[in-house]
Amino acid sequence: MARSRETKIELTAYDDLFQTDESREEAKLSKIRDIPISEIDEFPDHPFKVLMDEDMEQLVESIKRNGVMTPATVRLKEDGRYELISGHRRKKACELAGLETLKCEVKELTRDEAIIVMVESNLQRSVILPSEKAFAYKMRLEAMKRQGERSDLTSSPMGTKLRSDAELAEKVGESRNQIQRYIRLTELVPEILQMVDERQIAFRPAVEISYLTEEQQYTLLEAMEYNDATPSLAQAIKMKKYNQDGKLTSEVIQSIMEEEKPNQKEKPAFRDERITKLIPKTVPRGQETDFVVKALEFYNRHLQRNKAHER
After folding, report:
1. 92-123 in b/e burial notation, b at 16+ Cβ within 10 A?
2. Cβ atoms of 185 and 207 closer than 8 Å
3. For the CA atoms of the chain, what is the radius of gyration?
4. What pLDDT sits at residue 121?
């Protein structure tokens, strides 16, 4: 019976056994290569923007002089093309510099591993917009949860969620609650999310607004434009509460936005662009109506004079 059993002994490969640190570094370097930019695809749903700003101009000039100093990171896809994980600004700068290839390190990564690396590398940027953090945190948290579910199938979904939240919070230096607030921003309609990025709407009111439906958010957008004001935190909380009670109508939104609050801008006298574009910028705010009335009075006297001459 003992002879019928076969014992498999796995031996370390000869090359691996005698591999030196130098050879390991050479193996790593072998994965760094110049890849045609035409063969590199963008990362799906990449949340970070590539801005055409002064920093980009400086990066283009640097690459023209010295080439790409730090390789981008890519992974090989099943179709034989490459997917860009980190280095989106470097890739764009190479294109602007007229280069056809990009120095890259090729890594073997799963989809979720690639998401985590992509987010980690881009969170090192000096300036990150709220929308970028929002979608980056959401993508990374979802990837971490999927990894947790696969590695510990006996754990409850809630247990996986709590561990993922806590792990992400520790890695990025934000509280779990703050991460969830950022992720809430992904529920905003694009126009309002852009206002958050441009600091026209404060972060905390934006989080409360994210609980409104898409239709309600667009109604709020119209009310903001009409009143030339953005909601305070108190107003945003009030709208969220009305919505939870099923009482948030367009009339309620308009009524809340018409409430006076400290430092609120005075409402514009006219909303019609045909009128506003004819009012000189030198006219002080709040005196637009007087200017238009005087202009109409002048025009009326002009008409009266013309009629008198025709007689």
Report:
1. bbbebbebeebbbbbeebeebebbbbbbebbb
2. yes
3. 30
4. 85
d(CA 232, CA 209): 10
Evaluate the CA torsion angle 257, 258, 262, 266 in order and state its sign. Answer: positive
Q: Which residues fall within 8 angstroms of residue 290, CB to CB, at 6 or more apart?
A: none
Q: Which residues pair with 227 in a beta bridge?
A: none
| Cα separation, 249 vs 242, whole angstroms | 9
For 64, the 3-state DSSP assignment is helix
pLDDT tens-place string over residues 232-246: 999 999 999 999 999
What would the DSSP string read from start to end of 269-302? S---HHHHTTS-TTSPTT-HHHHHHHHHHHHHHH
Residue 116 in contact with residue 144, Cβ under 8 Å?
Answer: yes
Interval 235-292: pLDDT, tens: 999 999 999 999 999 999 999 998 876 555 555 566 677 777 777 766 666 677 777 8
Query: How do beta strands 82-86 and 72-76 pair?
Result: antiparallel
CA-based end-to-end distance of the chain: 131
- What's 210-257 look like in SS3? CCCCHHHHHHHHHHHHHHCCCCCHHHHHHHHHHHHCCCCCHHHHHHHH
